[in-house]
Amino acid sequence: MSNYKGLVFPLYRDIIERAVEQDKDVFVKFSRRQIDEGEELYLYESGENGRRKIVAKATVTNSQHLKPSKVKENYSDRVFQTEEELDEYTRGRGNKEMLVLELDDLEYLDQPVEAPGNLTVAGLYLNDERYEKLKKAM
């Protein structure tokens, strides 16, 4: 069990929109981060047209690491990215395992909020202090 309440990951606006609108429930990313069942995943809208704020959240129901081929085999229609986007993202990294998060209740926040710390492409763990700061902002 981790010592964190959740995790924030940056993601492009169009991918977040698709995931919410099409009820996608599997988030994948090359990452060494760990997150446990019951913890919360927050999505930070990044990219040129992104609001640069946390805009959505979900509860993690399962967390594992799989190679891209297994992700496609097991979750192809449930992943946030299209098949083409996933192929491009995983190109040249077929033997590397990805963080695979099965999610429940993916939804937009009522209002986008600032990240409670310095967010990088690697994501941001939510310790007690950051989690409370985020909750107060929501």
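Above is the first protein from milestone M3; the second protein from the same milestone is given next.
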Amino acid sequence: MFKKLYQKFTVHLLIISIVLMATKYLLTYLKLDIVTPYFAYIILLFVVVAATFQYLLLRSVISNPRKFILFFLGGTIAKLFLYFGFLVYFLLVVSVSPKVFIFNFVIIYIIYTMFEIVSTLYQLKKIGDINQKDKQIE
């Protein structure tokens, strides 16, 4: 069950990432100055963090469902600090246009956060349905 849920999540994660990169290339082709040159790094950050977090979240739910809320909230806070560190690094160390970079970052953050929430709710429902069926069999 874990493997199937995680594979489905990663496939959808990659599809969203490909669509976002295609959008970036379209906007660049149209010569709109609303895309940062570091767009791919932002996408890479969100893909790695989302995939890792979801893997650990699913593992925790399957092994001990009672600790889900603690792990989810702790992981969310850790992600926020990681994202903030990424923003600070790029804004202070790498010379980027702050308005464009932050605009891109926030849009991508919203998209991936919505995707993670919907996926987590779907996975919890699936895990709950399977646990419910197991209780009915007993």
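Note on the second protein: Residues 49 and 102 are 18 Å apart (CA to CA).
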